[in-house]
Design goal:
23% strand; 9-stranded mixed sheet; 30% helix; 19 strands; Lyase, Ornithine Decarboxylase, Chain A, domain 1; 11 helices; alpha/beta; TIM Barrel; binds pyridoxal-5'-phosphate
Length: 409
């Protein structure tokens, strides 16, 4: 189903009916488990992203959406949504074939068949930019682009983390941290015939993605907030210096990309940045619930069927074991969402085929229970379609990447 067929709901929930009842009514007659999107919340989040980013263009992070109908819905909202930040080069080629353009692949690859696929899309006039962070990436991509007879646009990934004694505050990404290191790779790009420098990306993961307001971990949260403030100053200075040095060395940059859903306002305010990335903001997954710069509405989840009642006050649902990637821990589990107050049984948590829950009153066999995934797009790896719900009814069912037969990682 295309987005053109999706109605645009009025904002706001029916006040007399609880959010749980709205979802329960909407899901009557639908197969469970089912992944759902609250369109009211999703659309409100799209508007909030625009507000938080001032007048800067926003590149949508596809890994946090993984549904072409929703990517189109966001893009149709405002011309400020420009381009996509893809999580895999094959994904970018696939999206290009469907008419999406200006695709920046956020992570490097030199895999020959993958790069060949990208080169074929470029040969057809699509704009796909591949990520590099070292001279070896540049050399290998130059050879592959030469063999395919195209000029490949490249983006330089610069590392924005903050190394401290005994603590690396940030994600392990690019080895490029200084202006000199960036200019060295730029010189390598300039010396090659089949590649050119298109832009720069400097993603401050430790600011945009790290929870810093967890009431269960007050001390840790206050330390993280302090480190974020220090890191923020470092990001501003270093990203600016690197961009300036590249320009002074003759680089013509179409874009300088930064940020993520948890840093939209601060990234947009950086004068060296020409565009901000946003992905998780649209679904607002549970991992962002304790993030001080994140005020988006929960918009995505999944519903499980109550299959049995093992004891009074307990229910057991079919399915539910969909943990998120990353360091294993309770915060990677889906969060029981609606009705409110449900909790896992500590000896079982979210199970492979069944999930018992406590604090369950008023639920009957056959009822749905709603959960929110810890991460945004990973939800879509478990389901073939998303049910778009508004005003207590399903307006449309749209395929996820998986539903279109596509998985990339
Ligand atoms: C390069 C890059 N930019 C931005 C983001 C932010 O994505 P989101 O807005 O979904 O948190 C990520 C997430 O991992 C990323 O890898």
């Amino acid at each position: 189903m295309t987005t053109a067929a999706i109605e645009t709901p009025e904002l706001g929930f029916r006040p007399s009916v609880s959010q749980y009842e709205q979802f329960r009514d909407a899901l009557q007659g639908y197969a469970l488990p089912a992944a759902i999107i609250s369109l009211e919340a999703f659309d409100a989040n799209v508007q909030a992203v625009l507000r938080h980013t001032g007048d800067k263009p926003v590149r949508i992070g596809t890994k946090s959406v993984r549904c072409t109908a929703l990517l189109r819905r966001i893009q149709q909202t405002s011309p400020r949504f420009q381009g996509l930040l893809c999580f895999h080069a094959r994904e970018a080629a696939w999206l290009a074939h469907q008419g999406f353009d200006d695709l920046l692949v956020a992570y490097p690859t030199v895999n020959p068949p993958t790069v060949a696929e990208v080169c074929r899309a470029i040969a057809k006039g699509r704009r796909i930019t591949l990520m590099v962070d070292c001279i070896e990436h540049v050399q290998r991509l130059d050879v592959l682009a030469g063999a395919a007879g195209v000029r490949l646009p490249l983006c330089l990934d610069i590392d924005m983390s903050l190394p401290l004694p005994g603590l690396w505050f940030g994600a392990r990404r690019s080895p490029i941290r200084s202006a000199d290191e960036a200019v060295e790779v730029w010189q390598a790009i300039r010396s090659r015939r089949h590649v050119f420098l298109d832009g720069v990306m400097g993603y401050e993961a430790q600011i945009a993605g790290l929870p810093d307001a967890d009431p269960r971990q007050r001390l840790r949260s206050s330390v993280i907030r302090r480190l974020k403030r220090i890191s923020q100053r470092d990001v501003l200075r270093r990203r600016g210096d690197i961009v300036e040095a590249l320009r002074a060395a003759g680089a013509e940059l179409r874009f300088v990309n930064g940020g993520g859903s948890g840093s939209l306002a601060s990234t947009a305010a950086d004068p060296s940045i020409t565009e901000v990335s946003a992905g998780s903001a649209f679904f607002a997954p549970a991992s962002f619930d304790h993030h001080s710069d994140f005020d988006f509405l929960p918009a995505a989840g999944f519903a499980l069927e109550v299959a049995r009642i093992p004891a009074p006050g307990m229910v057991t649902c079919n399915g539910g074991g969909y943990p998120a990637s990353g360091v294993p821990g309770e915060d990677r589990l889906p969060l029981p969402w609606l009705p409110e107050g449900l909790a896992y049984v500590s000896t079982e948590a979210a199970g492979e085929v069944q999930t018992p829950l406590i604090n369950a009153t008023g639920l009957a066999i056959g009822d749905p229970v709603l959960f929110r995934h810890a991460k945004a797009g990973e939800l879509c790896e478990r389901f073939n379609e998303l049910l778009l719900i508004a005003d207590g009814r399903v307006l449309a069912a749209v395929p996820t990447y998986r539903g279109e037969g596509q998985t990339f990682l």
